[in-house]
Amino acid sequence: MSIMTLTYVVLIAFVFLLILSSYMMIDAYQYKKKLSRVAHYIDAYKAQSYNYFINADATQKIEPQNIEQKQAVEHMIENYIAFVKDDVILNRIYRYAEEQFEADYQKLLKSRSKPKRINVLTHIFNFKMTSLLPDVKQLLTTRSLTRHERVEGLKIIASLDEPAAYGFYEMYRHELHDGEIDTIVSCMSDDFIYRIVGEGHDDDAWLLAALKSMERRQLVEGKQSINRLLEHPNRTIQLQVIKILTIIGTMKPLSDFESLFSSEVPEERKLFAQLASHYPIKETYSYLFKLVQDRSFEVRTQAVKSLTYYANHQEIFRYMLRVLKDNYAKDTIEAYMTGELVSDAVH
Amino acid sequence: MLQKILPKSSLLNTFAFVQMQVNRGKMRTTFVGVKPLEATQLPEIEQMLLQTYRANNVYFRLADNVLGVFLYETTEKEAHFYLNRLLQEYPELQWYAGVCEINSLEGDTEEIITEILQLLKNPEPPYIRTSERFKKRPRIQQKISIVEANEVARNMLKTAIEAITVEGTDIDIQTFEDGEAFMSSEFYLSDHPHIVLINMQLPRKNGLQVTSELRDLPNDRKFTIFLISRLLSAEDQIAAYEAGADAYIVRPFHLAVLCARIKQKLKRRG
Question: Is the pLDDT of residue B107 over 60?
């Protein structure tokens, strides 16, 4: 290549970079200006939005006139939703969002821009916009979506149209991982979670997600259906059921769970130790005495923690400190006795 | 009966009582002095006193716009009884009580009256002792700090808490955007009862750190700490209570319930 050609190439590249950086600077400046306008409106609407949404003063309703005003109101009501759960306030916000944002969001759902679509899907979920449910369903069935969009869409259906959620989930089930399924199912109501567990859904991933929601929310009804699932062929589901039983208790004898006590998996031995705290000390003492000397720190700690649930645990600890030779076990017991480790047992 | 003579609106805060107890051996004479702030009220007050106190054993002296009522052979209890009736009707009244010892009632009457008039002109201790029962209660000062990074939430909480009113209490509310801003202010330094509403997740110095630091202070008992968090695991709650929080509030929360809890705390602290 001759020097002249090279010079031209460099010059063109330089001009191109100059134009590109100018464009980016202008774009950044405009974006910053837009953000400051939105911030200005947020500040201006502070009192009015509180009076309308929180205090239910209908005369203070905000009627946004431009896109920045809408974004300001959007920002405020999303933050109200994140902090308050008074039904009266939430219902007012949802109604307002349907009224003010439905048309815009409907248009944005058809946008070619993925970030815009994901943004609007998040808003539809947060504002529980049932009027846009058909549009979301259509989006899920007709469009090629990113993973994130699919999950957001499925979350919307799970929260607004529970019976239809499984059908849509089935379309994408092979693409979703466990965490995403958990997220989708966790959007469902307590009643529907009980229903999935009660019917013993034949989709293991769906059922497992429902059981995890039960555990997280500490849902304590449906003992019969839970106990039935102890016979489930899927070991993971069995273990999840046992986790729930450590919260709600069970009528089954402790000996039914002995396989956990002698399991090679520390997590399973720990579960056993947790479950044991629901049984009388005379049944559990010999097991817990051994688990306190377990090779796994987690199991030892759980065994000692389970002992703190018994009224005479101090006496048991003092005895164990005298007879045990395992220093790790003694350390763990002492940590509970001195308060270095704290139990959540209420005596 | 009292209301007919003295319509409340016209006479609240318009006169002061002075009760003097004169001890002479076993005899006691209670003097009740009434000094209206406006002389035109005198006839009404005289009427009231006549009807309030027993007709006998009563002696009136009028001097410098003061109505004096001598209640002969009256115990302090009886005098209080009459005063109580009046004060039930007019809780805004302030009254003063003092004791002076004299040897003889006759000879020293003028002396007593002079002393009383002096006191009414300039009611300063040690002559005037205000009865604890009737002393006007000073307003209680309490503080509330809202430490929250989210501006919308911060404003919402402030506006909601500003709407709380507790009788006899002045509430000073301030907001901070993080733990660092709160701890470097002087707002938490006074001895007034102080409710701190703080988010566990903050950019600079989180809620747990602030809670621990406040509990390390010598006068930490004045603080009531409400920790707000989006996490609801038992471990997080235990950590919060171990740090010294009084309440762990998971968001989203019921705003009305939170305000009711804060109001209850303000009333009890008051």
Answer: no
A84, A338, A344: best to mutate for the B interface, most B CBs within 10 A: A84
CA angle, A147 as apex, A146 and A153 as ends, to 5°?
Answer: 90
Whether pLDDT at B230 is above 50: yes
Residues B35-73: tens digit of each pLDDT: 444 555 556 655 655 555 544 444 444 444 445 555 555
- Is the CB of residue A267 less than 8 Å from the CB of residue A242? no
What is the three-state SS of chain B? CHHHHCCHHHHCCCEEEEEEEEEECCEEEEEEEEEECCHHHHHHHHHHHHHHCCCCCEEEEEECCEEEEEEECCCHHHHHHHHHHHHHHCCCCEEEEEEEECCCHHHHHHHHHHHHHHHHHCCCCCCCECCCCCCCCCCEEEEEEEECCCHHHHHHHHHHHHCCCCCCEEEEEEEECCHHHHHCCCCCCCCCCEEEEEECCCCCCCHHHHHHHHHCCCCHHHEEEEEEECCCCHHHHHHHHHHCCCEEEECCECHHHHHHHHHHHHHHHC
Q: Do A342 and B242 make contact, defined as CB atoms within 8 angstroms?
A: yes
State the sign of the Cα–Cα–Cα–Cα dihedral B31, B34, B40, B41. negative
Quick check: A92 and A127 in contact, CB under 8 A? no
Residue A141 contacts B where some CB pair is shorter than 8 Å: no
**Residues in B lying within 8 Å of A, measured between beta carbons:** 150-153, 155-156, 159-160, 234, 238, 242, 251-256
Asked if the interface predicted TM-score (ipTM) of this complex is over 0.95, the answer is no
Q: Give pLDDT tens digits for A134-149.
A: 999 999 998 788 999 9
Contact A86 B254 (CB under 8 A): yes
Is the separation of the CB atoms in A186 and A213 below 8 Å? yes
Q: Strand B223-229 and strand B194-199: pairing?
A: parallel
- Provide, as residue numbers in chain A, all residues whose Cβ is less than 8 Å from the Cβ of B254: 84-86
